[in-house]
Amino acid sequence: MDTNYARVFQHTGAVDKYEHVTYAPGSYASRINERQRAYLRALVRRSFPNQRPDQRPDQRPDQRPDQRPVQHDFACGTGRAIRSLHGLVREAHGYDTSTDMLAKAAEVGTRARLHAIPADGPVPQPAPADGPTLVTMFRLLLNVDDTVRDRALAFAAKALPDPGAGLLVIENHGNANSLRHLRAHRLRGQRWFAELSHDDVDRLLARHGFETVERRGFSMLTQGWYERRGLDRIARGVDSAASVLPGTDRYAVNVVYVARRLPR
Ligand SMILES: C[S@@+](CC[C@H](N)C(=O)[O-])C[C@H]1O[C@@H](n2cnc3c(N)ncnc32)[C@H](O)[C@@H]1O
């Protein structure tokens, strides 16, 4: 694994590849993204219910509190997690070390304030915002070392100081207890082959005062299934069904964890 992951996304070639090859329509990553988008939108709707006009008839529309959360997307890249939640958050902030990724996020229509941050050093400060908060962190933790992981979680802890502050949502796109693990022996020497187990994630969260309150799997099968003619349709069917079935998260390749701060 490359220990300086931030450098990988510092040029436009890598950025274009990420946006147009990794996330090309129909690709493995974009199929997962579609399922995650639906899940995230439902999660935000049920976790941050906005006051419906008929619930408080005594209040004028301009006096009704806006309960939509403010989103802080750490390592936002091209703004995928922010675009997934357009309309459901009050405001969004994206933070990333790559100005090229941030430029691409703006180019593809990400509605957010975008902040360039250093790759190391003091923990970045979340932009000041009132009300409920949602911190998102997608496709970062797997491929970085513990220092970067701890810095990212320390950022989340600043934005979410107590259990009532809101939610943290993180993605592990290489669960060590999944089918992907079978490739580990063959590919361990390669730059990008990393794995994270549920226990690793839980320990990381606990170090920063978080506990997992929900876990959901978004792909039981590996990328290879999606790239073999004839198998791709089967793979899509299996993964769509698995992503709504309880219990499949344990062995899923791609897992999302929802966490809340523990009382101090
Ligand atoms: C694989 S991309 C994921 C982008 C986006 N979160 C998504 O899911 O599409 C990883 C991102 O992490 C950023 N990154 C790498 N090292 C970082 C660090 N130390 N702190 C914050 N962001 C970092 C990269 O610039 C890149 O945009």
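^ S-adenosylmethionine complex. The chain is about 35% helix and 15% strand. The pocket of S-adenosylmethionine is lined by residues 5-6, 9, 75-78, 80-81, 96-98, 101, 119, 138-140, 148 (CB under 6 Å).
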